[in-house]
Specification:
The chain has 436 residues and is of the alpha/beta class. It is 42% helix and 17% strand. It is built from 13 helices and 14 strands. It has a seven-stranded mixed β-sheet. A five-stranded mixed β-sheet has the order 3-4-6-5-7. A hairpin with a 4-residue loop joins strand 9 and strand 10. It is globular, with a radius of gyration of 21 Å. It starts with 14 loop residues before the first strand and ends with a helix. The protein binds glutamic acid. Glutamic acid binds next to strand 5 and helix 11.
Length: 436
């Protein structure tokens, strides 16, 4: 076993200068900065820290795809397996224009921590394709997804690396992935991916799972901070797979969602937004909120600093920055998105005594139900939505308690408490397995 007395090196996060003169910290460096902080607090062994600072495997592929107009385009695809100490690696596939090695590396490390905190037997990975899925036809998306799957056929595997949806992907991409993977392997293998349609072995409750977890995490945070759940006001940023279900379930559970937004518009209604109506509006308007009449339209950026009790960023990364953090009024932030808060903003929020339920805890509901889906695929026994929800809620409450306990014990914030929770389990697994 590695000794616990050797301390890990504390690295200085690298700050990069980007074209417009704004200092921008790389996402993976931001992960390392937080990892170092937690490492230092619990005196994690240097060996374990080094393992976790370096992803196990990084694969970059070029994907030539025939476009509908007859032309050919080459897309760049990534899959990074960050760590497999606790089990096969798990994590989504993202389709977005800003996908690059740095972003996927950061997201893959968060998956390792997320699975460890959720206490499920998985390591972490992430994949992505640099593309704008909104500009691709259904046929182009299918060919791109299948090309990516074939290129990654040796990386993926039911006991090896199990992808899932993330930003820009959903059940239809997962269905294409099962099809292409099963053809390569010459047998049907639904357990190689989660977030599938129900007819292909998907799980009840998977689509809403991340949003459901965000709601449960928000309720737990209200309990520990003494906020009244009946009167506390909530703003939800993002109306995709995470934000929509978070807002819908909060509304269903009589919580007061007073603001919602997506990439097209933001709305505020102090009396509470009629969420079922907003969902209907999005369904009838190409999935977007633009033109919704159930509240006063506000600037999209202003939802971050709105005068509410709880803010749930459920859209994209880096929306809470050193620039807007000083103006945030919420008492609780529940991170439905991955990486919505920059490392600099973390310090500001901590000084303002804002309770931040970090992404690696708050959005862990998705991967938790992914695990249930994988278990159901393997044993061929399928559970009801109520069974899935009950298991998921109990798991989130337990994870929240563990993180809260570690944050208190080490006199730190919940984000570092979450890293500590993750590291303690990972350290055990890594040391038990040993090195050669
Ligand atoms: N993409 C989701 C996440 O970031 C889900 C991953 C999964 O289910 O494997 O947590």
């Amino acid at each position: 076993m590695a000794t616990k007395t050797k301390k890990a090196n504390i690295s200085k996060p690298e700050v990069k200068q980007i074209a417009n003169g704004v200092h921008h910290q790389s996402m993976f460096d931001a992960v390392l900065a937080r990892l170092d902080k937690a490492t230092h607090l619990i005196n994690l062994s240097k060996d374990v820290a080094s393992v976790l600072r370096n992803p196990e495997r990084q694969v970059i592929v070029s994907l030539p795809v025939k476009m509908d107009d007859g032309s050919m385009r080459v897309f760049e695809g990534f899959r990074i397996v960050h760590n497999t100490a606790i089990g096969p690696s798990k994590g989504g596939i993202r389709y977005a224009m800003d996908v690059d090695l740095d972003e996927v590396k950061a997201l893959s490390a968060w998956m390792t921590f997320k699975c460890s905190i959720a206490n499920i037997p998985y390591g972490g990975a992430k994949g992505g394709i640099k593309c704008d899925p909104r500009t691709l036809s259904l046929g182009e998306l299918e060919r791109l997804t299948k090309a990516y799957t074939v290129a990654m056929a040796d990386v993926f595997g039911v006991d090896k690396d199990i992808p899932a949806p993330d930003m820009g992907t959903g059940k239809k991409e997962m269905a294409w992935l099962v099809d292409a993977f099963s053809k390569v392997k010459r047998h049907y293998e639904p357990g190689v991916v989660t977030g599938k349609p129900l007819t292909l072995g998907g799980s009840e409750g998977r689509e809403a799972a991340t949003g459901r977890g965000v709601m449960v995490a928000a309720l737990e945070a209200m309990k520990v901070t003494g906020l009244n759940r009946k009167t506390a006001t909530i703003a939800v940023q993002g109306f995709g797979n995470v934000g929509l279900h978070a807002a819908r379930l909060m509304h269903q559970n009589k919580l007061k969602v007073v603001a919602i937004s997506d990439h097209t518009a933001a709305f505020h209604n102090p009396k509470g937004i009629d969420i079922p109506n907003a969902v209907k509006h999005a369904q009838n308007n190409g999935g977007v909120l633009k033109g919704f009449k159930g509240g006063k339209e506000i600037n999209k950026e202003d939802i971050v600093t709105l005068d509410v009790d709880v803010f749930a960023p459920c859209a994209i990364q880096n929306v809470i920055t050193a620039a807007n953090a000083p103006r945030i009024k919420a008492k609780i932030i529940v991170e439905g998105a991955n990486g919505p808060t920059t490392a600099e903003a973390d310090e500001i929020l901590a000084n303002k005594k804002i309770v931040v339920v970090p992404d690696v805890l708050a959005n862990g509901g998705g991967v938790t139900v992914s695990y249930y889906e994988w278990v159901q695929n393997r044993c061929g026994d399928y559970w009801t939505e109520a069974e899935v929800a009950a298991k998921q809620d109990a798991s989130m409450i337990k994870a929240f308690e563990n993180v809260w306990f570690n944050a208190k014990q080490y006199k730190t914030n919940m984000r570092i408490g979450a890293y500590i929770t993750a590291l303690k389990r990972l350290e055990k697994a890594i040391n038990y397995r040993g090195f050669y």
